[in-house]
Amino acid sequence: MSRISHAFRFCALSFYCVAFSLIATVAMSNAASAQNAVSVVSDARVAGDLARTRFILDMDGEVGYNLSFLSHPYRLVIDLPSVTFEFPRDFVPKGRGLVRSWRYGSISKGRSRVVLDLNSPVALDKTFLLPGVQDQPTRLVIDLTESSPDEFEAAVGQATSHAQPVGATASVPKQDAQDPAVRTENDLPVIIIDPGHGGVDSGAVGSNGTLEKAIVLNFGRFLKEKLDKLGYYQVYLTRDDDKFISLGNRTKLARGKGADLFISIHADSITNGAETTRGASIYTLSERASDRMAAALARRENYSDVIGGVDFSDEPEEVTDILVELTRRETKNFSIHFARLVVEELKSATTVIKNPLRSAGFQVLKSHDVPSVLIELGFLSNNLDEKMLGSDEWRERVSDAIVQATNGFFRARIAQQ
């Protein structure tokens, strides 16, 4: 064999050895990175529009994180400790609203990064970390709003550090004194929280004996406490104990208090599809139900007065003049706007059903001058939902979501008025 052949074989063998060594090194490096990762990021998504955009990361544990803005071009950088990105096989990062596109990866030992490429200048509205609960992952949520070039440049270089994970209890930001939702004590918006059922009317009953009337009263009290702490609203409960209140008296109480918002709280139950149907939903008033489930639910809820033995003979007929009709239309628009805000917040906090924004002819939503919604927290007929509805962590997340939606609703409504 010639010297050239020996040299060729030696070079080839050396090449394969080096290549194998490199592959082994990369494999060990990747394995070490995965082993040292503090959390696994399993999903991400962008929601919203050019006025307000939300970025969400799903992960299996709480982590600290830093946010910073970069210009030329406009970017938001999310610095994380070492995490493993394990997205679904067909996952493709997609932009929306204020986020043109985004990318992710490891940048050095012990550090990972997500970069949002922005369509225009933005401001950081709020950011928080929602702890995982039941089958829901931990979620890092970042809300961005449109801004000006000058305001964006002023924020460049001013990194915000969240070394200690922010739990759901601290995720509602205090608003600035100039916020339109902050008004004098006598002019604070009035919110009525209506825990459904009560007394002789237990509502739905879970497979493990959980009573709807108890779940919604507990949640209503907790939501009121959170809203009260903000100091922006006057908040009242239609019932604060286990007593029966007719549907008509619930709406009369709201109108008597001069309510600016009425939130009825329930937890549904179904027979067909109970094992697979679960998640939160929100309803607004409509004489024509959006679907069969909505129609059936409205029939059951409207039957509460019959269970309580209410006499309907003295109920006044509905007034139908043009001024009432105009007010009703405006109220309906406000109700739908608030419902949409709640849906967007709930998507980040808990499981929601398919098409969570629905409508039906609920008697309790028929105040023509009070924006009103009915929130179904989940399905007591589903074992997973029933267990979740009794969880303190879930209650923190969902109540926070409704508070966030309420703050957004009154900022927009007061500005419009």
Give the gist of this structure.
The protein is α/β, with parallel strands linked by helices and 417 residues long. The longest helix is centred in the N-terminal third of the chain and has 34 residues, at 3-36. The protein has helices at residues 3-36, 149-155, 212-230, 247-256, 292-302, 304-307, 322-349, 383-389, 392-416, and strands at residues 39-48, 52-59, 65-70, 75-81, 83-85, 99-108, 111-118, 122-130, 138-146, 160-162, 190-195, 234-237, 261-268, 280-285, 352-360, 372-379.
Q: Can you tell me the residue ranges where pLDDT is under 50 for at least 5 consecutive residues? A: 3-8, 10-35, 164-184
The total of beta strands comes to 16
Largest sheet: 6 strands, mixed
What proportion of the residues form beta strands (DSSP E)? 25-35%
The helix count comes to 9
**What order do the strands of the largest sheet run in, or round the barrel if closed?**
12-11-13-16-14-15
Task: Give the termini separation.
Answer: 94 Å
Order of helices and strands: HEEEEEEEEEHEEHEHEEHHHEEHH
Task: Describe the 3D structure.
Helices cover 35% and strands 27% of the residues. The chain is α/β, with parallel strands linked by helices. It has a six-stranded mixed β-sheet with strand order 12-11-13-16-14-15, sandwiched between helices. A five-stranded mixed β-sheet has the order 5-1-2-9-8. Helix 7 (322-349) crosses helix 9 (392-416). The longest helix is centred in the N-terminal third of the chain and has 34 residues, at 3-36.
Summarize this structure as a short list of keywords or feature phrases.
globular; five-stranded mixed beta sheet; 417 residues; disordered N terminus; alpha/beta; six-stranded mixed beta sheet
